[in-house]
Amino acid sequence: MSVGRHRMRSGIHGAAAAAAVGVLVVTAGGWVGYRQLAGPDCSGKIELSVAVSTELAPAVDEAATEWEEKGAAVDGTCIDVTVAASDAVEVAAVVAAKHGATLAGVGQASGTAVSPDVWIPDSSTWLLRLQTGGAAAFAPGNGASIASSPVVVAMPEPIATRLGWPQKELGWTELLARVNSDRPLKTGIVEPTRDAAGLSGLLSLMTAAASSGGATAEQDRIGALRALASGASALRQDLLAKFPTASDGTTLASALGAAALSEEDVIQYNAKQPPVPLAALYLKPSPLPLDYPYAVLPGIEPAKASAARVLFEVLTTPSFRDKLAAQSLRGPDGNWGSGFEPPQGAPSPAGGDPSAAPPPQGGIAAGGLAPDAVERAVSSWSIATLSGRMLCIIDVSGSMKKPVPTANGATRQQVTAEAARRGLNLFDDSWSIGLWVFSTNLDGPRDYREVVPIGPLSRQRSTLERSLDTVVSSSGDTGLYDTLLAAYKDVQQNWEPGKVNSIVLFTDGKNEDNDGVSQRQLLAELERIKDPDQPIQVIIIGIGTEVSKAELDTIAESAGGGAFIAADPTKISDIFLRAIALRKAPA
């Protein structure tokens, strides 16, 4: 048998056949079966492509190379493994496109990118986001963790020392207070829509804000979002470059003071002996760690699936833990292998530290993380970091008076107005927003009425808040078509470059205005007046079970947007956030 050298590729572009050969074993008996069946006589070839987060890829590649040197084979069939060092966000874009999912902030996949057979991203939150982002049939196999790295708050040592590190135990609530103080700590983050450690830190801060309770909880949450947004970086390298390069007071005051990163990031940064080392703060409660799930992607051939099962066995042997240690990573249980050099103050599960609880086997989802918590954090971030021009339109027909059983008897109208008010709080003053209401014959023969014209929030935020308090249901029906057409023309007439120009319409019924335009006339007119150079995104949120999803989908898609249904009106806020977050930024 001729065995070629196994090589690791960088990126996920190109076909797996372009890589040199690495030999694995296919057997249900796992590692024991491998030792019994390995032999020199193999023929045929099964190609298995594996995309691995960049920091973990060398360890996986080394394990595959050792297999190759042993000449492993089973049933006369060789297995070629391609290990590709890949950013998780790049693979997520590929998988999302293949399975029809939309992930806020991820963007489009490269036209030449291919989906791997096995994907080992840095966090199970990627799998969770794909499942909640529209890939309902996305059900990867396995999903158990093969490595881990705690998420920490990285802080220049002089600043950390002033806060009592390493003797003092710090928490997220204290960090939140410092972020929102009169003299705030200068914080940064890698875009949490594209970085799992950033998302973990964001989730912890949002949880701390929610747990603060009282009237300041929402204000704390929004303040933290905006503080982080002001120091956000698209790339991890760019964020690391913002840390201080000297320890004098002026440099420390102007440089980055804190950021959520992985433990591995801090170890690697300090290994380069920077002028100002970083302290790794293990804040309580512990944020979601990076858990490196082993995901066998759906749809691969049975032979490849068998090879993937054996590869997992190899990557969970005791010797693999030492390979992880060489990359500054821990094992899946949180313990580390030989040669690992933890940062000062790093907790170890072996020492009985409950704060160092390992990632749940089966992935983060198995640990009880609510998918909507991740979706809410990602959506809130997207809104807080985008600027737009939006017309909000609320149905005030008679059916909006119906009480919502899951909202303590509040009406659909009240629940909808509250969702709009909560969304308004997330928008900063760079946004321009207006408010309409609609029914039938609401303003003379017109089905709609302008409450507040579209204008900068910097000067009319309080006006919009007061206007939402006065939104009440009429006794009319639903004049959907006339209202949407008039709104489209209004937004188009004053279209603003450099911003996402959009319409968000809430309704609980079908069009009931027999004196207005028909659906055919509406679609034809929208097609006639649409201007590709001045796009308008139309988002329709259907409330309750009486809306026609088919009708809303047809209208929204024709206008250039999407329809969302909140069968339970108490979920309007979450759907509203998600819908706004999925808007496409202007080119």
UniProtKB/TrEMBL annotation:
It comes from Micromonospora zingiberis. SUPFAM superfamilies: Periplasmic binding protein-like II (SSF53850), vWA-like (SSF53300). This is VWA domain-containing protein. The keyword rRNA processing does not apply. Keywords: Membrane, Transmembrane, Transmembrane helix. It comes from the Bacteria. Coiled coil: none annotated. Pfam families: SBP_bac_11, VWA. PROSITE patterns: VWFA. Residues 327-368 are annotated as: Disordered. Signal peptide: none annotated. InterPro entries: VWF_A, vWFA_dom_sf. The chain crosses the membrane at residues 12-34. Residues 389-580 form the VWFA domain.
